[in-house]
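Morning. Coffee machine broken again, so started the prediction first thing and wrote up yesterday's gels while waiting. Chain of 221 residues, entered below exactly as on the submission form.
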Amino acid sequence: TSKENPKIKNAVRLKNSAGYRNKTGMFFLEGQRLCMDAALGGADIPTAFFTPEFAKKFPDDTGAIIKAACQTFEVTEQVFTKLSDTNSPQGVICLCSFPKFCLNPKRGGKYVILENVADPANTGAIARTAEALGLDGMFVCGGCDIYSPKALRASMGALVRFPARVRTDAVSLLDECRKAGIPCYAAVASSADCAHTKVSYANGAAVIIGNEANGVPESVK
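Came back before lunch.
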């Protein structure tokens, strides 16, 4: 019932701070669909919060989340307003551990690499598209935090399910791809280069997408 409760403060900090998310290895997930995806998909959920209204309206979902989470707390609408990161809160939040994906370039694999993509909405959209296309994974080199609430919402939960790994250096990652026999491509805005529709991805591919304003750096190209 208190906005000053340590568990509430911890959740708010996970919502607002990328540094704290990386330090704790946890992230903040909000909304019925995303929380249910996490619960039914076997995500590690140490803590969940829900409002009485949500529990009344969605008793089956509430039961599934309670079953999946290590601990759950019913909170007042006023407390949930402090917790929420959305304009129209649905009344449920899960605090999840980072997924433990083992992702390394493998021969024949298909990967997308993000080089300093800054907008979390773009990162999330690319993740859900990559999952829908059946790619093998996504590597993120710089840019926004993939576990920010905005990126998670834009991904429609893909960043909880789909293998994504943060790497510090795109050049060394591309070297690993080449050593694994994976053809590497840079997405560039130039009609002088090969159109992506003319490329065969039968033997796998690593496609790198650059920053929204500056594109792929020359050193990476």
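The chain has a mean pLDDT of 94. Going to sketch it on the whiteboard this afternoon.
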